[in-house]
Design a protein that fits this description.
Shape of chain B: globular
Shape of chain A: globular
Protein name (chain A): ABC transporter permease
Largest interface: A-B, 34 and 51 residues
Oligomer: heterodimer
Strand order of the largest sheet of chain B: 6-7-8-3-9-10
CATH architecture of the largest domain in chain B: 3-Layer(aba) Sandwich
Subcellular location (chain A): Cell membrane
Keywords (chain A): Cell membrane, Membrane, Transmembrane, Transmembrane helix
Distance between the termini of chain A: 26 Å
Radius of gyration of chain B: 25 Å
Strand order of the largest sheet of chain A: 1-2
CATH superfamily of the largest domain in chain B: P-loop containing nucleotide triphosphate hydrolases
Structural class of chain A: mainly alpha
Keywords (chain B): ATP-binding, Nucleotide-binding, Repeat, Transport
Membrane topology (chain A): Multi-pass membrane protein
Number of domains of chain B: 3
Helix content of chain A: over 70%
Order of helices and strands of chain A: HHHHHHHEEEEHHHHHHHH
Helix content of chain B: 25-40%
Chain lengths: 364, 506
């Protein structure tokens, strides 16, 4: 029975994630007990708060950004490319897209499309710099994307000043790009019991997930990408142009990264200001890892992450430091990597044993 | 020390790995002061057995006796403590250290690291005629000398029983003779040598006793004075050997692959393929003979477009291949059976049908437009499994669950698909069982009869001579000789390969 369960790779992923989650809850419970808090009541409080309508809306909105970020990371991961620059890519993309959206008064419909296109192009181009450096100069994309994050931060700081692309936000010390007019906004979706709205572009995340699945699993390009990730030497011998693949995969990863800020930009904040969320690109790396670079797995992982972020806000009302959730998240992540490796090995060994048994080969 | 007790006795040794039984019911008795050869095909279980004897693996069943005492070996240090030493096939020496430093590394307690150790190394070297100089840098030593350092390392640690794993694989014939002289010296001093090999001529020359292993168990003991190489080979494979041979010539005068003066340089600027010119015609199998590492791999990669040729022209059916990608070349009709199927031929974790697509991901029946045609690829994988007798429970199992021979048959079937004009077959039967070997030869013969041009590279000289219409010899990247496969013997070919005889034997 266990053999059948582990025969499918998605089942292995699910088993690994579940074991990791249980392990993380155990670790968190221990930490809570040691710190003098009652684990069951703490979890109860988080769960109760997390299922309130406002929390659900916030969780979904947050998860959408996480999801897009993790997809961007996963595209690279699928061919052993480590795009650590999603963070810089989405922030720069969101900033320039916001500026373009605020400046160009295009007809509704077209305006949203143009804003999103600007974000995609900027994200892809920013990642493309790392790709070009890698294929022409052999620079590790890990190093170059981290450096591009810093450069991106500098560029944003330079451009986001009152004389350039930004203006002071009325009634505060904040500065931001000129708000996108109503013709460029995407309406939200109401959720019963909450005054908050689910960003309309959450659907964009769903579409991106479907697109990712389709491209990776059903197209020639996806086959080449997966083959390169599984064995670069075999892929090259099969006729894959490894350099070209690096450029395409990296640009694609950056393009998806460009979408990360869109649900919030067009559905909530309408302008890129100093308080636009940061760090989602790094969270995406963890979520991609937890979701095994699989679009469905990443969806669950994003929702879990967002739920933990959201529900942790209740902890401070109970005088429990909300950083406790970071421990849970870290424990999930660390254990899922280990558990998945174990489950995968056991599963593959079972496969081999089953094949040997079915062929009646006693000895090799 | 008593010479009446056997040096090593293995009784009923069984070792199981997930999915396979690597060894079962192994019984071997090695008399002290002899050279005892253990022979078997690749994958017969020789290496596992030696790892058991050296304490690297523990047997699931059975007993090991060393000098008459039952030994429970948990690690190589247990084996060393009982006087068993192992010389690995791949040397484990630090190039940038001296011989002395390499020898004392990990054995500093025995004689220190200075004068005492140096004296001891000289003593051992003189005693067994190894001719090892303690203060030379290992990187300055040749392959044969390095091997003698490995042997000395083992003797230094007090070994009286030496395991040599495929010691001649890396040596040229002259070095082999030197090694055998050293083994005689060791024997004269009362040491016992266990010699693992699949080179039967050498085994017959050096061994006092032979044990044959097949499919993980001992199947026969043979006296080297009474058995011929061919009889030994048939014991090894358990049946009559398939014979590599071609019937009537099918060679036409239509050139398929033409290479003119092709040169490939490595990163340091050395010419690894040096001015190679050759032509392969329709229906012709051209064999390239050569000691491994003389440019065969680079020659293949240059034809495949995986390595850029610095100068020269490569044409396929009259069309210049320069500037064409590997993919384009494959689409033009080049099939490729790579030397290392795990690195270059398969996606081990992927199912068989995805491996069918690999290398053919732009062509029918695997794709429709830009999409992968899963149904078509799966159907065609079923066909290959059927026609090429790939033993598998289905096409959804991962490639790494198949045996080496079945993996290779899948690759051969895949590369023969889509009507290739040229097939590059690098060691097509390496590491596969006899049944698969015969099948692969059959497929090559059939494809040749249908007009395929084949570039055959092999280390198996019988295969090369038997399966080639034309033979060329490669040495240090240059084609140095030509031989007529109808008349040449493996010995003559061997001496051409090492450059001992220049020119052509025709």
């Amino acid at each position: 029975m266990i053999a059948n369960l582990l025969a499918k790779s998605y089942a292995r992923t699910a088993v690994a994630a579940l074991v990791a989650l249980v392990f993380a809850i155990v670790v968190t419970s221990i930490v809570l007990s040691v710190s003098g808090f009652n684990p069951p009541s703490t979890f109860q409080a988080m769960f109760d708060f997390g299922k309130e309508p406002d929390s659900v809306v916030n969780t979904v909105n947050r998860a959408a950004a996480y999801y897009l970020s993790a997809l961007a990371v996963a595209i690279g991961f699928r061919m052993n490319l480590f795009n650590i620059g999603v963070d810089g890519q989405y922030r720069l993309a969101a900033m320039l897209a916001a500026a373009a959206g605020g400046a160009w008064a295009l007809p509704p419909g077209l305006r949203q499309v143009v804003i999103i296109l600007v974000a995609v192009v900027v994200g892809g181009a920013w990642a493309g710099i790392a790709a070009i450096l890698k294929v022409t100069r052999g620079v590790s994309e890990v190093i170059s994307t981290i450096m591009l994050n810093f450069i991106g931060t500098g560029v944003i700081a330079f451009l986001l000043s009152p004389n350039r692309l930004a203006a002071k936000v009325a009634g505060s010390n904040n500065i931001g790009t000129k708000p996108i007019g109503s013709s460029g906004r995407v309406p939200g979706i109401s959720y019963p019991g909450s005054d908050l709205k689910i960003y309309g572009l959450v659907l964009l995340a769903v579409l991106a997930g479907l697109g990712f699945w389709f491209v990776i699993n059903r197209t020639r390009f996806g086959f080449d990408l997966r083959a390169t990730g599984l064995s670069q030497s075999a892929a090259v011998a099969s006729g894959v142009d490894a350099k070209r693949m690096v450029v395409i995969a990296m640009v694609l990863s950056g393009a998806v990264a460009g979408l990360v800020g869109m649900p919030q930009l067009l559905g909530g904040s309408y302008s890129y200001s100093l308080d636009f969320p940061t760090g989602i690109g790094f969270t995406g790396i963890g979520i991609a890892l937890l979701g095994r670079n699989n679009p469905v797995g990443i969806a669950f992982a994003s929702l879990l992450w967002a739920f933990l972020d959201q529900s942790s806000q209740i902890l401070e009302f109970n005088d429990i430091p909300k950083e406790i959730v970071a421990i849970t998240q870290a424990a999930v992540l660390l254990s899922v990597v280990v558990v998945y490796e174990i489950v995968n090995r056991v599963g593959r060994r079972m496969d081999q044993r089953r094949v040997a048994a079915e062929l009646g080969e006693a000895a090799a | 020390m008593s010479t009446t007790e056997p040096a090593v006795e293995l009784h009923g040794i069984t070792k199981r790995f997930p999915g396979v039984v690597a060894n079962h019911d192994i019984d071997i008795t090695v008399a002290a002061g002899t050279v005892h050869a253990i022979v078997g095909e690749n994958g017969a279980g020789k290496s596992t057995l030696m790892k058991i004897l050296y304490g690297m693996q523990r047997p699931d069943e059975g007993t090991i006796k060393v000098n008459g005492e039952v030994a429970d070996l948990h690690s190589p240090s247990d084996a060393i403590a009982r006087g068993i030493g192992m010389v690995h096939q791949h040397f484990m020496l630090a190039d940038n250290l001296t011989v002395l430093e390499n020898v004392v590394l990990g054995a500093e307690r025995l004689h220190g690291i200075g004068g005492g150790a140096r004296r001891r190394i000289r003593e051992i070297s003189d005693q067994y005629g190894l001719g090892v100089e303690p203060d030379r840098l290992v990187e300055d030593l040749g392959v044969g000398a390095r091997q003698r350092v490995e042997i000395l390392k083992v003797l230094y640690r007090g070994a009286r029983i030496l395991i040599l794993d495929e010691p001649t694989a890396v040596l040229v014939p002259q070095e082999v003779d030197e090694l055998f002289a050293n083994l005689e010296d060791l024997k004269r001093e009362g040491l016992t040598v266990i010699f693992i090999s699949h080179k039967l001529d050498e085994v017959l020359k050096v061994a006092d006793a032979i044990t044959v292993i097949r499919r993980g168990t001992t199947v026969a003991s043979a006296d080297p004075k009474e058995v011929s190489a061919r009889q030994l080979a048939e014991l090894m494979v358990g049946s009559e050997l398939p014979v590599p041979e071609l019937r009537e010539s099918t060679v036409t005068d239509v050139p398929v692959l033409t290479m003119e003066n092709v040169t490939v340089r490595d990163a340091t600027g050395r010419a690894v393929v040096d001015g190679v010119s050759l032509t392969i015609h329709e229906g012709e199998i051209l064999g390239i003979a050569g000691v491994e590492g003389n440019g065969q791999a680079e020659l293949v990669e240059a034809i495949m477009g995986m390595l850029p040729a610095e100068s020269g022209v490569i044409r396929l059916g009259g069309e210049d291949l320069s500037g064409r990608s590997t993919r384009r070349r494959r689409e033009m009709g080049v099939g490729f059976i790579p030397e290392d199927r795990h690195r270059h031929g398969l996606l081990l974790e992927s199912p068989l049908w995805e491996n069918r697509v690999l290398g053919h991901q732009t062509r029918s029946p695997n794709v429709k437009g830009i999409l992968i045609d899963r149904a078509g690829a799966r159907r065609d994988t079923e066909r290959i499994v059927e026609e090429y007798d790939v033993r598998t429970p289905g096409i959804d199992v991962s490639a790494d669950s198949l045996s080496g021979g079945n993996q290779q048959k899948l690759i051969v079937g895949r590369e023969m698909s889509g009507n290739p004009k040229l097939l590059i077959a690098a060691h097509p039967t390496r590491g596969v069982d006899v049944g698969a070997q015969a099948a692969i030869w059959d497929h090559l013969r059939r494809a040749r009869a249908e007009g395929l041009a084949v570039l055959l590279i092999s280390a198996d000289l019988d295969e090369l001579i038997g399966m080639s219409d034309t033979l060329r010899v490669i040495l240090r990247g240059r084609l140095v000789g030509e031989a007529d496969p109808a008349t040449i013997t493996p010995d003559e070919l061997g001496s051409l390969m090492t450059g001992a005889a220049e020119g052509s034997v025709a």
